[in-house]
Amino acid sequence: MESVISIQQLSKTYASGHSALREINLEIRRGEIFALLGPNGAGKTTLISIVCGIVNPGSGQVLVAGHDIVRDYRASRSEIGLVPQELVNDVFETVWATVRFSRGLFGKKPDPAYLEQLLKDLSLWDKRDAKLIELSGGMKRRVMIAKALSHEPSILFLDEPTAGVDVELRRDMWAMVRRLRERGVTIILTTHYIEEAEEMADRIGVIRQGQLILVEDKHTLMQRLGRKELLLQLKQPLAAVPASLAAYQLELLDDGHALRYAYDTQQEQTGIAELLAALASAGIEFKDLKSSESSLEEIFVNLVRNRA
């Protein structure tokens, strides 16, 4: 699949000596939703800011839709819409004037019909004549999204877009993201709500201390690094796990009323059949069992912890 953003050997060290990014190599495909995850201070915002032309790169090369972000700044920037973490607006302007002005900044011809539909999609049309100072925090966030999309970019960056916003806006935003992806817009997001990345993203990147430690298709990542668990509810409680079952590394839960068995999804043999036979041999009966698998959050936490 064609890359819309190509990052090669990108590094950034600030004058203070802090190394924010170290030799980042990343290809982002046209039309995908790419989630960039990492702890606070990992380099997520620095990476986005460099691609968007807000922060100068230290070394390396970044191409946006084939345009070098340094040599062809205007062309590359026109392809990008950015929703930053911080709310930055002229609070005394109206919603309509703000969005129309943002479109004009990129040299786009006026298109009232497009802007009207954009505001309607974001539930802002009824607020079009309101000044930004009069809006709630959630409504101001919607205006930031409208500004980012005003010039019809092919790439949209969402930097912690739902931090501190209401549930309704979060739901509306992800519905809009899905529509944009259907139209071929590439979306790159950072988020602390890992369940959103799990639901929305096509691929996941994990960054830690300025280094990209993993890039993987979401489903492949969860299959490769995830673990499944089998929880057995026992008919009679156990005081301890019998020595004959030690090989299965069972965990006794719920005051002895349940056993948990973890297994690797990548192994050809899960050991479940052998475990059930061993339980029967030990005279242990269960009344219910259910399986579960690791969430993306658990995988992410383990990745960051293991690389520490």
Explain the overall architecture.
This protein has helices at 44-51, 73-78, 95-105, 112-121, 137-149, 167-182, 194-200, 218-225, 272-281, 296-307; strands at 3-13, 19-29, 33-37, 59-64, 67-68, 80-83, 155-159, 186-190, 203-208, 211-217, 227-234, 251-253, 258-264, 286-293. It has 308 residues and is α/β, with parallel strands linked by helices. The strands form 3 sheets. The chain has a 6-stranded mixed sheet with strand order 6-7-8-3-9-10, with helices on both faces. It has a 4-stranded antiparallel sheet with strand order 2-1-4-5. The longest helix has 16 residues, at 167-182. The radius of gyration is 25 Å and the shape is elongated. 31% of the residues are buried. The mean pLDDT is 85.
Tag the structure with descriptive keywords.
308 residues; alpha/beta; Rossmann fold; 33% helix; ATP binding
